[in-house]
Amino acid sequence: MVLSKPASDSDLTMHATSASRYVRDSLPRYEMPENSIPKEAAYQVIHDELLLDFKPKLNLASFVTTLMEPECDKLIMESINKNYVDMDEYPVTTELHNRCVNMIARLFHTPLGESEDAIGVGTVGSSEAIMLAGLAFKRKWQNKRKAEGKPCDKPNIVTGANVQVCWEKFARYFEVELKEVKVTEGYYVMDPAKAVEMVDENTICVAAILGSTYNGEFEDVKLLNDLLLEKNKQTGWDTPIHVDAASGGFIAPFIYPELEWDFRLPLVKSINVSGHKYGLVYAGIGWNIWRSKDDLPEELIFHIKYLGAEQSTFTLNFSKGSSQIIAQYYQLIRLGQEGYKNIMENCHDNAMVLKEGLEKTGCFEILSKADGVPVVAFSLKNKKGGHDEFEVSEMLRRYGWIVPAYPMPADAQHVIVLRVVIRAEFSRTLAERLVHDITTVLHELEKLPPKVNSEGKEVHVNVEENWSNGGVSKRKSDLETQREITTYWKNYVSAQKEIKRQKEFCGALISLCVLRPASESDLLVLSTSASRYVRDSLPRYKMPESSIPKEAAYQIIHDELLLDCKPKLNLASFVTTLMEPECDKLVMESINKNYVDMDEYPNRCVNMIARLFHTPLGESEDAIGVGTVGSSEAIMLAGLAFKRKWQNKRKAEGKPYDKPNIVTGANVQVCWEKFARYFEVELKEVNVREGYYVMDPVKAVEMVDENTICVAAILGSTYNGEFEDVKLLNDLLLEKNKQTGWDTPIHVDAASGGFIAPFIYPELEWDFRLPLVKSINVSGHKYGLVYAGIGWNIWRSKDDLPEELIFHIKYLGAEQSTFTLNFSKGSSQIIAQYYQLIRLGEEGYKNIMENCHENAMVLKEGLEKTGRFEILSKDDGVPVVAFSLKNKKGGHDEFVVSEMLRRFGWIVPAYPMPAGAQHVIVLRVVIRAEFSRTLAERLVHDITTVLHELDKLPPKVTSEVEENGNNGGVSKRKSDLETQREVTTLWKNYVIAQKEIKRQKVMAS
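The structure assignment produced for this chain is given below.
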């Protein structure tokens, strides 16, 4: 969340000595530079600045993994250009996702048959997983209440006050009352008895935490289940349980296997777990597993068609990288149960080393338990001189350690704790070093004068101090005293500790155990290339019992991924598949940093993009915006802001606020439908018509009423790339608002067009130059030229973002503001976005967008020359070429063309246009920056080849035409399946006979 502003004029530019061999001029901090700079300079500027970040390994505030094996890093970079949502194009990646879901489900004792598939989904982290789980509980409860004819407008959820902030976000964003069981001093987790007392007929679920964020303690899920079973029996309710196992889900199965907390308990209906915590993967991967299909309402699952084949999706995000999915599968087969058990036991042992070391100082009370997540939470027994845990935390930073200090949740806020998370990469040597440095800090604190009492400007301390005059002096101001203290300890440390600290400050990497080949199972993964390391097959849907060599894990996954299509030839996707090596290097250098712990680069990117969109800002005024996983999250945040602002206004006016709606074209991306369905907003769609495939502004404004929270305009339709007329929409809506007294605003979904229009259509008015445009989203991973997993939402002003939606969290070491649906996620894409903005500048983006447009024209002209296609895209807009067959000879349509192009390596989707023109079938090619003119010409050649082949095929059979049989009568039609098999066999044999040699040459080129 961008809430800061530059401190001085000097902050508006930045200098980089290391980059001076390439550039001499300063770069603007909060605006895109006009000109490009050398890629080496962009790398050096960012690399040098990132040296000022703390070492991720010493960030003990975070549960997120910061170290993986080189073989896994290699797999990550090999797959970083694959968009996970393109399931049809990357079937092996999808298969690896399914294997992970099934392995984790079986780890959690999901009641499945031997060959039955589990129900689950991969997410960006546990925040998204929890929101999906909560949404499923809410919708299932609503459906049951509606069927019973009972009110369904006041759902609630029962949790402990110690839940992670994402639960509070879920409750506030999805309008569910959060009923919190307060903790007490000495008992810092949810009391199951008190939780069950709070349950009523409106409770959608009780959430239990397997590993509290505050002290790592497991809540008693078994007792909760037993008490809730009894209450359900007495009341006739069926209140379920969700287990938030974000931290503990990959710990309990391995070192507490007898503990009943999962699907062994009948009321547990869903479980989330963070792959990027003790699943041992870099930030950006979580999982949610449901007990059965009955626990996930079908209405929440969307079925989309415009990526080349029908796909099912239940996520809040859409486009995102595949790397973390692949990395999770690597860890599961590489380590197996044996490896995870060893690592978790090591973490537990290292936590005990740290705990015992702290206890020996005699200064700390340990507030964490021996069993649970390997976390050590501790507080000072005696705050001598007023020096508290916050000061210990601050002083430890001098030694490189990030150890957060924060208050416990309600009702134990008076208890302040320090917390150390023991991750797999935190060795025993580091634990001992940390104890040493904490002891040193305690000795330094003892030598400092007492802190100032904050009750007045000049006050006496409780314990009188003797000064040289023998009396009691008045205290200096807070600022003066703190400056003296700071100077004192800085000088002390410089004199006494500098040499020793430099020598001793290093850590040893923890080595993971390897070793035996895995056991057999019915469903196996076979890999010949891995046979040099392991001979036995691996179970497909269960974690192997034993570890395997890291080289074998790499080879197995690498070989399987060869079956995915080449990302560069995936013309269904808008997502970037190629970046410069210097940026790839930065991506890997920062892949172990958790985005939630950083701030400066998101601020710069938000401000650059906001100024690109003509946000009305003063020269030193900071923009309001947020970085997201993609435009899906950005759109949901924007829609939520519109909804809440509209609700607040209606409440203030004493008017009903239970029927919000949003007006869009039928051509909107599926995330708008998700927003409407998940956040309970009516979606009023303007149907398209043949020849006009975007929203008609006149019809849109006609649909607006007093309950309309906003009108959404698309700058670059998913279907044909066309820009909607935002200027006309703004003018018509201004007039309607004037007539009615309403203030209906506009949101612009510039996911695709936001990085195109400013550079090649600078005079086009579509952004904050129009007064009714209040927010804009854009995808950094589309024409922002970054790999999948980055989007942005910019608001016109603070007034357009209700303060109540912003959360302020403290348990990461300092107060942070957040307005996102996700929490932990990788920082690489943020850094990659900043690289592109300063590397390319306005000049570079303009050149690339013009090249894309010209290559689109080459493809368009080539298709027109065939005489077989009608072009449905416009020359202006996103560089997309959408086209349909003029004459479907022999019944062979666009779907057949799409399928046959796959033989040449091309992924060109075919799909129907949206409501109002569903009968129009189109093929669509997205021209990305990495799609060259040579490829455009090659594609035209291959399409022409396919057309010639189709001309030689027999007509497709239709069930309406009769055939003459040998007996002179009329025979019955064969089934569609039989006929299609015959046709398929015919053209396959033809192609094999005529084209095999040529195809091999083409593919090789």
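Interim note for the steering committee: The first helix runs from residue 39 to 50. Residues 435 and 740 are 68 Å apart (CA to CA).
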